[in-house]
Automatic annotation (TrEMBL):
Keywords: ATP-binding, DNA damage, DNA recombination, DNA repair, DNA-binding, Helicase, Hydrolase, Isomerase, Nucleotide-binding. Residues 457-621 form the Helicase C-terminal domain. PROSITE patterns: HELICASE_ATP_BIND_1, HELICASE_CTER. SUPFAM superfamilies: Nucleic acid-binding proteins (SSF50249), P-loop containing nucleoside triphosphate hydrolases (SSF52540). It is an enzyme of class 5 (isomerase). It catalyses: ATP + H2O = ADP + phosphate + H(+); Couples ATP hydrolysis with the unwinding of duplex DNA by translocating in the 3'-5' direction. The keyword NAD does not apply. This is ATP-dependent DNA helicase RecG.
């Protein structure tokens, strides 16, 4: 417990009401407040003489009040307070709204600093609702005249008030504040001491000194996480107790031979990497990264066969129930002839069916369980789970071992993702994951041609769809959901479906959406896959994983509403054979970002390039789902801008933890790391 842990209520000037408002911003303690950094800054350093004021600018001036008057605007029912001010070189006015009593405060002769927007009013410059600070005779302004912090505030709190409170806090605690970083390190890395850096963030002296302060604090954040990861890596490295599942078992060999294709070189390489991990009792923690359509499922299937060969069970967790069904149908027909028992565990089971299935899983008569993430995580008990495969598609989250607790002793874990994870993120968050990458697509694939077409070309499109269907091809037509919830409103889809039925005939068109029962969905998917009903109007329920090689056209309506990775995933439903496939985007040019997305998806069919464009538009934490896990929601550091700093922090963290695993030489850092990351990184031990 330090002074920084005490409640903000103990700070002079913070009453219970203000305290609860600050709490809404996540500020509870003095420490929180100290690190509640500004959202932006206003440069109010230049004091403008009144005679030089320009309309439509923002300016700061130091003036003396000449006269004040107050009146009520009858029509608008607001009170107006107007002051005429002078600085000895010129006159101006200042106008405030609904500030009752202000005229009594700003009496003639009062010295003021003003800051605000300037307008022209009757030939005279006028400050409109300016911030002001009353100054004593020789007093210099605090809120005006420097670079001033602007915070992200909630109703009932003003920047003015917060600046005052934070100034008070800085004066009170900084002199006592100990720097948790060793002095030698700061010297070596040319980093500012902590106290001055914090002060500079709230009250910058110049952009240059602010940059130095920011660098110090960003380094701290990155360093703490890297130390946490280094500690975890040491302990995870020693996590033994997983089943040894040797390579070269009979099932896996048989299944590999019965595949309708040869594995690509990349597939074989990643399988070897995975297989090697699984044959050791050190728990595998591996990420399999490969673009949409690169053939991750085959790899996962063979890895699961290695688990079954070794006398254990395997689980495959997928993002949607349609996908779970599709995998179950496919894997059953493929694996059951070889005596592998496959169970499908989804939310659609009756209580009785579910109970029976859970029993079989617990007894071990089911070898392979397929289900959605939620369903498998619930209350499933395995006899002996050897491998868990998590197919996260592009919704990549941080792998959390804790969430898998109770699923067998210590299963090996393989996470599959189509999202290329940028180097900075991989280093910062997935530092302790091994990564396998499939870079090349199965042979003979032709990149999908993507076109953004205008309304006047839609008739041509219908003709093209006719000819594709005549040649035995299948077509996806995806409509966006206008409402937030899939359950509320599928109207755009229904309208489109009616239209397509009129245009192409009811026997050729079917519809799929999330409100249909599992049974309905399955029969629709089967009719589509078999070609009985070759045009499928759908919501994004088909977005991930659905695999129908004969599908060669993807039409995406309202494409401007979709995110880039979503568009790439949708497009990935076609181009799965050696035929030329097409993706047509129907969409109105919308926002600038929307246009950039459509242009990006048209210009590249490569998942890595698409992800790069996405990163540039949205930022990396958003994309890889690390933000909600709180591992990368830094206050200061920025994973793109601070890549160099991150590399530095990582190198030093690894070095330090290597030399001094218990961190005895840096107890303050240790304490902080445990405080911040003990739960998130599941660190063992105490500071
Ligand atoms: P994803 O990586 O997106 O999960 P899938 O595993 O669904 O990709 O594979 C896409 C398609 O490629 C499937 O139809 C699959 O049968 C096929 N495929 C996978 N590996 C190969 C290969 N080595 N040669 C030819 N086709 C393959
Ligand atoms: Mg897949």
């Amino acid at each position: 417990m330090t002074v920084l842990d005490s409640s903000i209520r103990y700070l002079n000037g913070v009453g219970p009401v203000k305290a609860s408002r600050l709490e809404r911003l996540g500020v509870r303690t003095l420490g929180d407040l100290l690190f509640f950094f500004p959202r932006r800054y206003e440069d109010r350093r230049r004091i403008v003489s009144l005679k030089d004021l320009q309309a439509d600018t923002v300016a700061a001036s130091i003036v003396t009040v000449v006269s004040t008057d107050s009146r009520l605007s009858v029509k608008k029912r607001i009170s107006l307070t107007r002051a005429i001010v002078s600085d000895g070189h010129g006159l101006a006015s200042a106008l405030w709204f609904n500030r009752k009593g202000l005229d009594r405060l700003l009496t003639s002769g009062t010295r003021l600093a003003l800051y605000g927007k300037v307008a022209k009013e009757g030939g005279m410059a006028q400050f409109v609702a300016p911030e002001f600070e009353i100054l004593g005779e020789d007093e210099v302004p605090v809120q005006i005249g420097g670079i001033v912090a602007v915070y992200s505030l909630t109703a009932g709190l003003s920047d003015r008030w917060l600046r005052k409170i934070i100034h008070r806090l800085l004066d009170q605690v900084l002199p006592e504040l100990e720097d948790h970083m060793p002095e030698s390190l700061l010297r070596d890395l040319d980093l500012e001491p902590l106290g001055p850096a914090i002060r500079e963030m709230h009250c910058p002296v110049s952009p240059e000194s602010w940059k130095r302060a920011r660098r110090r604090l960003a380094f701290d954040e990155l360093f703490m996480l890297q130390v946490g990861l280094a500690i975890r890596r040491r302990s995870v490295g020693e996590l033994r107790g997983a089943p040894r599942l040797p390579l070269g078992g009979p099932l896996r060999r048989k299944i590999e031979h019965s595949l309708p294709f040869e594995l690509t070189e990349d597939q074989s390489r990643v399988l070897a990497e995975i297989g090697r991990d699984m044959s050791s009792d050190v728990t595998m923690n591996r990420l399999l990264q490969g673009d949409v359509g690169s053939g991750k499922t085959a790899v996962a299937t063979l890895a699961m066969m290695q688990a079954v060969d070794g006398g254990t069970q395997a689980a495959l967790m997928v993002p949607t129930s349609i996908l779970a069904q599709q995998h179950a149908i496919r894997l059953r027909s493929f694996l059951e002839p070889h005596g592998v028992k496959v169970g499908l565990l989804t939310g659609g089971l009756s209580a009785k069916e579910r109970k029976a299935l859970l029993k079989e899983i617990a007894e071990g008569s089911i070898d392979l369980v397929i289900g959605t993430h939620a369903v498998i995580q619930e209350d499933v008990v395995f006899r002996r789970l050897g491998l868990i495969v998590i197919d996260e598609q592009h919704r990549f989250g941080v792998l959390q071992r804790g969430a898998l607790g109770g699923k067998g002793e210590m299963p090996h874990v393989l996470v599959m993702t189509a999202t290329p994870i940028p180097r900075t993120l991989a280093l910062s968050v997935y530092g302790d994951l091994s990564v396998s990458v499939i870079r090349t697509m199965p042979e003979g694939r032709i990149p999908v041609k993507t076109r953004w077409i205008g309304d006047h070309k839609v008739d041509d499109l219908y003709g093209f769809l006719d000819s594709e269907m005549d040649r035995g091809r299948r077509i996806f037509w995806v409509c966006p959901l206008i409402e937030e919830s899939e359950h509320l409103n599928a109207r755009p889809l229904e309208e489109r479906f009616d239209f397509l039925v009129r245009r192409f005939g009811s026997e050729r068109v079917s519809m799929l959406h999330g409100r249909m029962s599992m049974e309905e969905r399955r029969s629709v998917m089967e009719e589509f896959a078999s070609g009985e009903s070759p045009l499928l109007a759908s919501t994004t329920v088909i977005e991930v994983g659905v695999d129908v090689p004969e599908a060669t056209v993807m039409v995406i309506e309202g494409a401007e509403r979709f995110g880039l990775s979503q568009l790439h995933q949708l497009r990935g439903r076609v181009g799965r054979s050696d035929e030329q496939s097409w993706c047509f985007l129907l969409g109105k040019p919308g926002t600038q970002d929307g246009n950039r997305r459509l242009e990006a998806i048209c210009s590249s069919s490569d998942g890595f390039e698409v992800a790069e464009a996405d990163m540039a538009i949205r930022g990396p934490g958003e994309i890889c789902g690390t933000r909600q896990h709180g591992l990368t929601d830094f206050k200061v550091a920025d994973l793109i801008r601070d890549e160099d700093l991150l590399t530095l922090a990582r190198r030093i963290a690894i070095d330090m933890v290597g030399r001094d695993p218990n961190l005895d030489s840096i107890p303050a850092v240790k304490e902080m790391v445990f405080r911040m990351y003990r739960e998130k990184l599941e660190l063992a031990g105490t500071a």
